[in-house]
Design goal:
Blueprint (H helix, E strand, L loop, with lengths): L14 H8 L9 E12 L3 E15 L3 E16 L2 E18 L4 E12 L4 E17 L3 E22 L2 E20 L4 E11 L7 E12 L4 E12 L9 E14 L2
Antiparallel strand pairs: 1-2, 1-12, 2-3, 3-4, 4-5, 5-6, 6-7, 7-8, 8-9, 9-10, 10-11, 11-12
Length: about 260
Amino acid sequence: MNHTPFFRPSVFTLACLACGLAAAQVKTDGQWRGVAGAAAAVTSGNSSSSALSLNADLARATAADKISLGANVNYARSKSSGVDSTTANKWAGFGQYDYNLSPRLFAFGKLGLEGDELTDLSLRSTLAAGLGYKLVDTKETSFNVFAGAGYSTDKYDRTLTIGGKTGKSFSRASVYLGEESSHTLSATTSFKQRLDLYPGISGDKALLAKFTAGVSVAMSSTLSLSVGLVNNYNSKPPAGDKKNDLGVFTGVNLKLGAL
């Protein structure tokens, strides 16, 4: 199945990532904070389409640790020449726990879950754990690097051949490498980016990677406008699927929790 990049109504699935990208640095006062958003689009004429996206992103930090949670759902359909088709049906969720070993060094564990009907991916689960280091940690700028080990399992609804193996389930151990930074550019504008790399060392030895970047501009104390970019990469996708999923998005988000 050929998977077209997100330059279509399913672009709204990426609004969920605007939450994480647009959020300011989390205060270490033990309060839950985050953002949630919903986006919809409808077109009509010679062809018609509709899309809906829901998302949430929350974090709680203290001087000792940090918990991050997030989830999103995206659905889109189109109709052309009387033929209805689903153009997006995806969901994803994640959780991460960071424990500070020193003012700069921390240990982390993370779990990610996702599914995609268009690629017949019923469930991808990704576990990673390791150490992180805060190269820069100020109110205006933070820059962290990560290193550790990961393990992922992909379960499909149909039999596929990937990396010389045929089946419905594919697993791989991997190295985990990553970096992230956030920057307060002005009283109303912030920028954040993150890169995650999972070079496979067993199974199909696929390289999984995700890069996210975004700018957020506050419109009020609770609403913000976000513009961002997301690029997902899989070096060994199922036959007929592209290696890259690239998207550019914009959305409006609502702040949750303590201000």
